[in-house]
Amino acid sequence: MARSGSGARLEGSLLEVLGTDAAGLAGLSRPWQDRIRQADLVAAPRRLLADLEAWRGDAPAPDLIASDKPADLLPRLERALAAGQRVVLLASGDPLWFGIGRLLLQHLPAERLRFHPAPTSLQLAFARLGRPWQDASWISLHGRDPEPLAARLQQRPAALAVLTDPARGGADAVRRILRASGLEAAYELWLGERLGHPAERLQRLAPADPLPPDLDPLHIVLLIAAEPAAVSPQALPLFGLPDGLWLQHPDQPGLMTKREVRIQLLADLELPEHGVLWDIGAGVGSVGLEALRLRPALELWAVERRPGATALIGANADRLGVRPAAVLEGQAPAALGSLPDPDRVLIGGGGRDRREVLEAVLGRLRPGGVVVLPLATVEALAQLRPQLEQAGLGVTVSQIQAWRGAPLAEGTRLAPLNPVLVLKGARPAAG
């Protein structure tokens, strides 16, 4: 004997919860079609009831009930199960994946429920693309603000499926968030509609393409990471390039200095017309390479410990039309020994060896030189600031906190980026 979540005692029969794709009843196998016709009660979304009534014709069974209103549905299901009736409930996709399954389990005992999932829209979308999806992630906008999507994009997932909500966050909202994140060039956007239906549609939309005027409410958006198309260096902004224009390390695509922080760091470096710039922990080379666009006569020496840094930063340099003096793959401070003494130094990245790196920099920094350190924690600031002060540098501290607009149905909400502390030291000029 089992007891439901509402206290009713249920006997005997099972509730068969059957997933369907966008084809609805027409996509079901013959055995399931026969089982539905033989049922005593069939519950289904209202959009399927007309097809069910056509199937039933003049026959008295099965009884039909819409599943869209749980307050009416659940008591009827409980009575039917208690009476030992044959009951089938039709649902979309996998009932246990953003479906009615969660609600049923809250009110009915699990041993009285048997789930038969159909492929989800997520599975069908990747199947239609012919792309493995074990590396994919997903996010739902159903009944939610789109701000989490903006935050997720900053991690630069290889593939991201967005379950849209036409009432709050449809395909248009996804595109606006992608644009506000500066990542339009870094992702292909695919729009899937009515997947599983004979009239299904899957299409790739370029940033300038309008949404289909007949966009179906049942749609899913796939964002697939792609190498950004090359743009003529003359067509690029002088500095402050969108994040999506940079080639990334495939295994760590989100680890780069965001545009707003990059702009501030370039200002804090007080770039001279001539001199030597060290970019330590250069990542994809974004700050150092933009510095060369501002000051083409500078010598940029980029140091990055990740394998493949030379090729990646070199490729980004080609895209920007600049040429660093050298890119070294190695660990600082050991990799700094062969470099000419610097006039400007940016120390990015973290790690326990940051004090040793700063010590090596301070031993080589020329008179009038500037060193800038973007930091993620106040502990790092407390550790490194005294080191600059004891070396006789003038020290300033600032915090960069930027927000990017995330569209809402009624306007725009500001989604925060991670705050960055900036520690700057300036060595006095020679007597």
UniProtKB/TrEMBL annotation:
InterPro entries: 4pyrrol_Mease, 4pyrrol_Methylase_sf, 4pyrrole_Mease_sub1, 4pyrrole_Mease_sub2, CbiE, Cbl_synth_CobL, Cbl_synth_MTase_CbiT, Cobalamin_biosynth_MTase. Keywords: Cobalamin biosynthesis, Methyltransferase, S-adenosyl-L-methionine, Transferase. The keyword Mitochondrion does not apply. Transmembrane segments: none annotated. The keyword S-adenosyl-L-methionine applies. CDD domains: AdoMet_MTases (cd02440), Precorrin-6Y-MT (cd11644). Pathway: Cofactor biosynthesis; adenosylcobalamin biosynthesis. Residues 33-203 form the Tetrapyrrole methylase domain. This is Precorrin-6y C5,15-methyltransferase (Decarboxylating) subunit CbiE. The gene is cbiE.
